[in-house]
Every structure is written in C-alpha cells, then in structure tokens.
Amino acid sequence: MNRAAALVLALVVTLTWFLAACGASKSTEDRASNESPAAQPGLFAVSREQLPHLRIVPARTTTWSIAIHTTGTVDWDADHTTQAITQVNGPISRILVDTGARVKAGDPLLYVSSPDVANAISAYKKARNRQVLAQRVMKRTQELLDRGAVAQKDFEAAEADFNDAATDVQNSLQALKIFGVTKQEIDQAERQNVAITPELAVFAPIAGMVVQKLVSPGQLIQAGATTCFMLSDVSTVWVQGHIFDRDLPSVRLGDTVEESNPSFAQKFHGVLSYIGAMVDPATRTTPVRIVTQNPGGLLKKDMFVEAVIHTRTQKNVLAVPVSAVLHNEQNEPFVYIEAQPGKFAQRLVTTGAQQNDEQEILSGLKEGEQVVSEGSVFLQFANSYQ
Question: I need a labelling partner for 124 at 20 to 30 A (CA). Which of 221, 269, 319, 335 fits?
C-alpha cells in the first residue's frame, strides 16, 4: 500500500471513532434529560389548592409540670367516719334510721331497753333518799347540840353521814349523765308520778350519712362491743392509689389531683395527703392516698377512678399538638413533616405523656421541624394518589 492510501485509511478510522463517541455522549445526555432529578424516598407533593387546608407548626421545646397517671379505689374518709356504739346492754326496742339516712350530730339512731339504765335510776333514787334522811338527822342533831342534849361528836358524825350521802348522789347522777338521762328528766317524772322509761337512745356521734346498719330490731347488744351503725361524712372521700418507683421522686404531699370516672361528666379534685413508706409486694407499687371532694356524694366506696397527679416537678420536653400524631396500620405513631416547601413525608415517632392538648415526643423529631397539626386527610389522599 502506498503512502497516500495509508493516510486516507487513518483519517477514516479517526472520524468513525469520533462520531461513535459523540453519539454515545448524546445518548447518555438524552437519557439523563428524560429522567427526573433524584428525589427523597417517601416524599410526596401537595397541590397548591390543598395547601391552605393544612396547618403546619414547628416541634417546640417547652416546660411541663410532670403529670403522673394512675388509678385508684374510692374509700370512706377515715378522718370523718366513725362507729355508733351503745353504752349499755339490752335488746333493741326501736330503730329510727336506715342505711343512706343523713343525720346530724346528736340525733337519736335507736333505743335500747336496758336494765342498766333502770339500775342506775334506782341507785340514784336510793342515794337521794339517804341524802334527804341524813340532812334531817343532821338538823335535829344541830338542834340537840344547841340545847346541850348531845355531844359535839354526835353532830359531826351526822354531818359526815350527810356529806357521804351527797357524794353518793353525785356519783349516781354522773352515771345517769353517761347514759343520757338528766336530773331534770327524773325530777319531772317524779312530779308527774310516772316511771322513768328504761330506754336509752344511741346518738349520732358526728353529722353525716348512715353508710352501714349492722343491727336489727330486738337484737341483744353488748355495751361497748356491738357496733350499731357506721357513719361517714361523704362530702369528702379517700382515693387509694398506687404509683411506680420511677414516679416517686416527682410526687410530694400537697400535689393537686384530678380524678374522673367514665360514668360522670364532671371531674373530681383532690390533694395528695399520704405517700406510703413501703412497697406493695403484689403490685410492686407504693400506695398513696388522695383526699377528694365529693359533691353530691357521687363517688361511692370501692368505685374505680382514673387520677392525674399534677406534681410541682418540671421538665423540658419536645412537644407537638395531639392532633398531629396519627397511627398507621401497625398502630405505630407517626407525624407528617414538611421536608421541602409543599412536599411532605411520614415520620415514625415515639410518644410520651400528654398535657394540655400537647403530645410529648421522645424520639423521631427535632426541635423546629415543621409538623402538620391539621389537615392530615389531604396528606393521606395525596400520599395514596402518588
């Protein structure tokens, strides 16, 4: 091959390679131009028409007073609950009240026909008769002493007998007072020439409600041993609750408590009055007592309530509106965040406590990230559509 032919062949090969390279580069550029820019996984856009329906707020750090949620059981207020116990032996002759009755302090609850009362009345009458006789003897002895008919020691003996009789009268009268029988009642009965009834009333020791009736008509009761009624001022009750070890450093006596029961629309308010000194071995919790106001007597003994203890201990939390937190099919909490203007994504989060329509976020969000608090239905539609 001559030199000219070799030069032509080299030019043809070089041109072919250049055109192939240009074609490959152009093909690559065409493919790149047909593909969309790299997008974040799970990101979806919302049309301009839907954006006004969304309310977007930043996740923010705020200070909360720690609120502890627990449950409790209603009990009578032991500081305003007492027993009505008779002071004498005998059968019950009359019962005046029943369970649920409201009484005032000093109201009669029942009557007992008691030989103890009859014996006390008899002892008082005998002591008073001896006193009257001793007084007469002392007066006569005084007259005889003035005439010189008796010695001084005889008068002193008569005076001592009178003083002893007067002491016996006072002692027997004191026994009647314990039984509730007054001297005026005895004197009035004697003036009317009628016998004093041996019935003794059992009086209400406090004002409140008869929450238990423990006797029946005709029942023989024993002094100081038989409980006739249980009375309680139900305007306040005790709620017996329990708290876990992790909550013990936060609670203090005097913390306010809000309680509720699904049966009632209203809330009940109380104060933490006792924190136990030991752990319940069955539940591994510490008992607490809440003195609770009970308007209308709605809370009954052994009723269950839910309680929120508002402590005075504070902490910083990352919070979003409660409405911002949704749940997926696996019941996992998530929020919608605005990753780019007009573009949103789902973000799984870990939630904590709730307070004042705000939800504590333990993980999954950072302060300042934009969270959708209202209008999630548009986002769910946009997400499913795209």
Answer: 221
Query: Is 301 within a domain?
Result: no
Residue 139 lies in a domain: yes
The residues facing 102 across adjacent strands are 209
On whether residue 38 sits in a domain, the answer given is: no
User: Is the distance from CB of 108 to CB of 203 less than 8 angstroms?
Assistant: yes
Last residue of a domain, one of 145, 177, 195: 195
Residue length, the chain? 386
Last residue of a domain, one of 175, 195, 215: 195
Q: Note down the domain range covering 350.
A: 44-63+316-385
Residue type, 309: I
Which residues lie below 8 Å from residue 380, measured CB to CB, with a gap of 6+?
Answer: none
Placement of tokens 């490959």 in the chain: 24
Tell if the pTM clears 0.70, that is, is over it.
Answer: no
Q: What is the CATH classification number for the domain harbouring 349? A: 2.40.420.20
Q: What is the 3-state secondary structure (H, E, C) of the chain?
A: CCHHHHHHHHHHHHHHHHHHHHHHHHHHHHHHHHCCCCCCCCCEECCCCCHHHCEEEECEEEEEEEEEEEEEEEEECHHHEEEEECCCCEEEEEECCCCCCEECCCCEEEEEECHHHHHHHHHHHHHHHHHHHHHHHHHHHHHHHHCCCCCHHHHHHHHHHHHHHHHHHHHHHHHHHHHCCCHHHHHHHHHCCCCCCCEEEEECCCCEEEEEECCCCCCEECCCCCEEEEEECCCEEEEEEEECHHHHHHCCCCCEEEEECCCCCCCEEEEEEEECCCCECCCCEEEEEEEEECHHHCCCCCCEEEEEEEEEEEEEEEEEEHHHCEECCCCCEEEEEEEECCEEEEEECEEEEEECCEEEEEECCCCCCEEEEECHHHHHHHHHHC
In a domain, 246, yes or no: no
For the chain, how many structural domains are there in total?
2
Token reading at 16: 């072919």
Q: What is the CATH number of the domain that holds 164?
A: 1.10.287.470
Average pLDDT per run of 10 along the chain, which is 386 residues long? 43 38 39 37 70 85 87 95 88 92 93 81 85 90 85 88 89 78 70 68 92 92 90 96 90 94 93 93 92 94 94 89 88 89 87 85 91 76 58
